[in-house]
Each structure stands twice: as C-alpha cells, then as structure tokens.
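Weekly structure sync, notes
Attendees: PL (lead), two postdocs, one rotation student
Agenda item 3: pending single-chain targets
PL asked that the sequence for the first pending target be pasted directly into the notes so everyone works from the same version. It is reproduced below exactly as submitted, 182 residues in total.
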Amino acid sequence: MSEDPKTVKVEIMNEHLPYELIMLRGTFDQLVTHTVETNALIESFCIHARQLLDFFEDKEGHATDARASDFTKTKYQTKHLPPSKDPIRDNINKQIAHITLCRTTDSTEKITGQDMLKLLNALTDEAEKFKKKLKPEYQDEFRWNQPQRPKIPESSFLESMTTSTTATTIGWPPTFRPDDDK
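Predicted structure, written out during the meeting:
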C-alpha cells in the first residue's frame, strides 16, 4: 500500500471497491444449496454488503477508512440503500458480523435470499449512482461495470434460504464408530 493519499485513493477505485462489488455479486450467484458452503457464502455476501453500506454512507469508523465522499465532487448522499433501521441491516450486524444476545434460531428472523437480492440490487444501483458523482480524477479509475440483474427462477432457492448454525443442518457432531480409530 502506498503512503501517498492520491495513490491510495486510486488503488481503492482500481481494486478494492470493485472487489467488494464483484464478491457481493459472486457470492450471491453461488448460493444454490443448503450446505456449510452456502452458510459461508451467505456470511461472505453479508460482510461485503456491510462494507459497501458503510462506504456509501460515509460511516464514521477509523481515520483510515475510505468513504464515498472521499471520491465525489460533493458530500455523497445515498439514494438506493435501505434505511439504517431496516431489519435487514440489523440482521447483518447482529447475526452475521457480531456474536450478540440478539441472535435467533427462528428462520423468519434471519437473513433470507430475498433480503440478499434486495441488498444486491440496492448496492448495485448505488454503485452506478456513485460512479456518476466521482471527481474527474477518479472517473477512469473505478473499474467496475454493472452486471445484468440476476435471473432468478420463480421457485428458487431464495424463498427458503437462510443461514443455519444448528447441529442437524451441518451434521455435527460427527458420528463416532469404534472402528474409526484404526
């Protein structure tokens, strides 16, 4: 990483912000089965979504955190993101990013496939808006193009998909048979 602030911002536009958007889309596209891998993809999708939400909303964090307004002509104002009190956002914070007393085993209170599709579309639309607001020196640096909207079949995995950490879902603990130690 360069120490020059301009170079660092160019690196964010060239590599880091497109990476978050690509990973957001890539993890969404891979969510097709109810396995440990699916839970990992759901968690990955949600972490990328959370990072992008924080970026576009200029969330105060560490002094070294990049914010959308670092790259735009004026203070960046979001248009497409769910409100900060939206249950989807609360679920990402309380059920994915942190171990809290608010975690639930009720699948109706967990992140769903429909929630992820909503976030994917909102963040993709926000990235397009952001791209139009960039300072001239960053307009050619943001190397991301909006992909087509995902084509989701009517009876898709989105209807029933949620994260699950129950033992029966992931097959834990493994069955021990006396002859397994040979």
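Discussion points:
- Residues 27 and 41 are 5 Å apart (CA to CA).
- The first helix runs from residue 5 to 30.
Action: rotation student to compare against the earlier draft before next sync.
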